[in-house]
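Cross-check.
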Amino acid sequence: MADRSPATSAQTFYSRLARLYDALARRGPGVDTLRRSLADALDPPPGATVVEFGCGTAANRPYLEARVGPEGTYVGVDFSPGVLRVARERGAAGGDPGHLVRGDATRPPLRADAVDACCGAFVSGMLADPATAVRDWASLVGPGGRLGLLDLARTTRPGWRVLNPAFGLFVRAGSPPGTAEALGRSPATVQDERVATAHRTLRELCTDVDARTVLGGFGRVSAGTVE
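Predicted model, tokenized:
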């Protein structure tokens, strides 16, 4: 019998749309601003090993590698085989397939002593318990390590809130089939709550937190040094 679990359905959904997602992730409106904002806020030192959870097709890779330099290492982790396949193909075409690992962001498949910084991009809203995940990532890098988040949520900025209904439709369209029914609520509402929880947890765990909003308040970026 086929596995119909939510996790398996999500993997299948994102694998099927991997190339469309890759096009949006690299050339969609505002994505360069979002990705640069994450790299700037995370600010990993040269030579660092940076892990990105929910890396997708590794669109953040060049931004983070520019920070850590040739002596540093980027490691991408994602649960969907389809998006990782696209990421590996793109890396191989550029002469460096990179370090891309299939794994669950809630159970990091990495040694704590090997990671200097970690981040998650557009993944907080997909996690049933984002607070625990962020705490696990903080434990992975340990005191002095860098932790960053990049997410999308409905804006609270006057003048931009008129676009919130359209954003809600965007979130619903980008969710696996049956998500709204399984949640019993609007996917955008759940995403807002999970994103707020993840970023609040990061602020509780870190010092010198850089928290900013971009793209009319729809983009949320937070980063800091784990205490």
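The chain has one domain: 6-226. The radius of gyration is 17 Å. Passed to J.P. for a second look.
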